[in-house]
Amino acid sequence: MTKLIEGYETSCKRVIERIAQLNYQRNELRKHGNEKLIEELDLDRRIRLLYTEHSEMREIISYLTSYRRRLESRET
């Protein structure tokens, strides 16, 4: 169970890093007036999807952590 939670935590960190990369790319393109490329790359939608994915992973982590605590409390 702990390894599963750690795996989700690692994935969350990667998603946040990817969001930061895409935000940086979008901001740089916007700074240079390249709105068309932002649309072609669909950066806004990709960023929104990653935020949704991150939120869902956090919910799963919360559920698994709670479940692990319940199991541990039964064992003691």
Class by SSE composition: mainly alpha
Write down the secondary-structure element order: HHH
Name the assembly state. Answer: single chain
Number of strands: 0
Q: What number is the mean pLDDT?
A: 96
Total of DSSP H or I helical runs spanning 4+ residues: 3
Query: Looking at the structure, what is the overall shape?
Result: rod-shaped
Largest sheet: none
* Rg, Cα atoms, Å: 18 Å
Any low-confidence stretches, pLDDT <50, length ≥5?
none
Strand content of the residues, in percent?
under 5%
Range of helix content: over 70%
What is the terminal-to-terminal distance? 17 Å
Q: How would you describe what is shown here?
A:
With 76 residues, the chain is an all-alpha fold. It has 3 helices and no strands. The chain is rod-shaped, with a radius of gyration of 18 Å. The two termini are 17 Å apart. The relative contact order is 0.16. The model has no long low-confidence stretch (mean pLDDT 96).
Please give a quick description of this structure.
This protein is mainly alpha-helical and 76 residues long. The protein contains 3 helices and no strands.
State the main characteristics.
mainly alpha; 76 residues
Topology record:
Elements (H helix, E strand, L loop, with lengths): L1 H30 L3 H7 L1 H33 L1
Helix pairs in contact: 1-3
